[in-house]
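Quick check before the chapter quiz. The format below is the same one you will see on the exam, so make sure you can read both the input and the output lines.
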Amino acid sequence: MNNKSSAAQTGEKPNNDALTVSHAFIGGVRLRLARTSAVTPPGRASGAPLLILNGIGGSMELLAPIAAALAGRDLILFDMPGNGGSHPAPRSYDMRDAADLTAAVLDHFGVDEADIMGVSWGGMLAQQFARQHPARCRRLILACTGPGALSIPGHPLALHSLFMKHLFRRRGGESRNSAGFSAQMQAIRGWSSLHWLHRLRHRTLLIAARMDMTMPLANARIMSLIMPNARLAVVEGGHMALVSQPARPAALIADFLDG
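Here is the expected output.
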């Protein structure tokens, strides 16, 4: 992937009136991106935009509930290659490549520094981004995620469900998001942040769900002990708590970013 970009505005909106979608060639692949109108409400100082990184195989539509709960903020979202409206990557990539692609998305929007939030797989990418591009990450939010290959594993049935949903086929036999899912799985193969998490000095909010069977709460507890400027908040619900019960996580995120 290279970091050159060209764009075309579409006006398409992913289930959120505040988000306007565009497509651009970034890093050699056509990505679908979205950004809010960036209107700062009265009484709140304008600050860095919040870039949200999705879970494995997910499109930005999946993030619509938490994006709506964060209405009024300057949000940036994009579909990873092969997911949602983004074309597959022309070659395999690793987490370093994904972090550089994320930086190129910020370049595309003319953003030097952003708050970075990652959910599940996106939380692992957020960790890699903060390590690789530390000056471009103001604050870090890691939700329902872990430190990668050395994570405490989830319940076998929950992990089975995660993988099985990507085996269902669309009409005509096309695998749904198979290219993106497979590429993301390959990217985290053998990846772990445990040996360098202690070097991340960014103010960090860890959000973990009490009943998360895919990425157990214990992972966030361990990360909160390793990271020097991290605090942990536990919410009710499972791995999809930010989608199914977004109000509480959104309030925690707002307090953290505005504090």
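If your answer matched, good. Residues 95 and 209 are 25 Å apart (CA to CA).
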